[in-house]
Give the backbone structure.
Amino acid sequence: MSAILMHRWRNRQNHVLVFAGTGEGPGIVRTLLESGHRVSISVVSAAAARAYAGMHLDDLHVGPFPSQDPLEQHLAARGVTLVLDATHPFALQISAQLQLACSRCNLPLLRFERPDHAVSDESLLATVSDLSDCALAGHHLLLAVGARQLAAAATAARLAGALVHARVLSTPEAIRQAGLAGLCGERLAVLRPGTGDRTGGVEAALCRRWQISDVLCRQSGGAADQLWSDLARRQSIRLWKLKRPNPMPGVDVVYSLNQLCRQLDAHVNGPESGPHHGG
């Protein structure tokens, strides 16, 4: 058996369960499949599942886990050998659940962390409440954060004297949260980020229409983060970013596909530096 075939055969003994969305998830899964790993995926919605159509997955789970027990039962039933947490950096609940589940099931857990986009320290906010201390009197501020953070962000921005606008996803829950934050009518845009003829075109048009001077987004490291970073630079908009949470303590983190593949190879072949077991 050739070295390449032997390598792939060894990788087939690895069954990686990936928790991800539609950002980096499809690229990660394609890379793992091409490297010969068995791969299953868990996503929150049917819309997210469509990004994995046509891939040769062992299993595709759609929907959130209602509690810790169903999650641990899912890991055990699928014969998983390693779990990869590639969820959104602000999805703290599922990351904490995965750490606990892997600890209880004695499974290795890796975290795939997105890269940072450049931002000045003075524009990085630890919490949305910190917005109230920013120099925003008379400024037109666009909130581009998660729906659950809209109310707190809008309250803080108004305390700072800003005129507040927001864009939210086209889901009933996001629209409901916007209403609770007092954002509706001409002050609210309902859309999916990145839509339109060119990436960022709709967002750029909103900023011009509302004469936006400042934007608050999350330091997610994903496509939306990059979109707002590029748009702010082009339109001379002040960009404020909500600082991403620190990685879970005790969980190994990888920052690239190459680093991920090296870690998985080490797990399969018996590492020089052993993989860390979540927990």
About this structure: The chain has two domains: 3-113+247-269, 121-242. The longest strand covers residues 15-20. The domain at 121-242 is CATH 3.40.50.10470 (Rossmann fold).
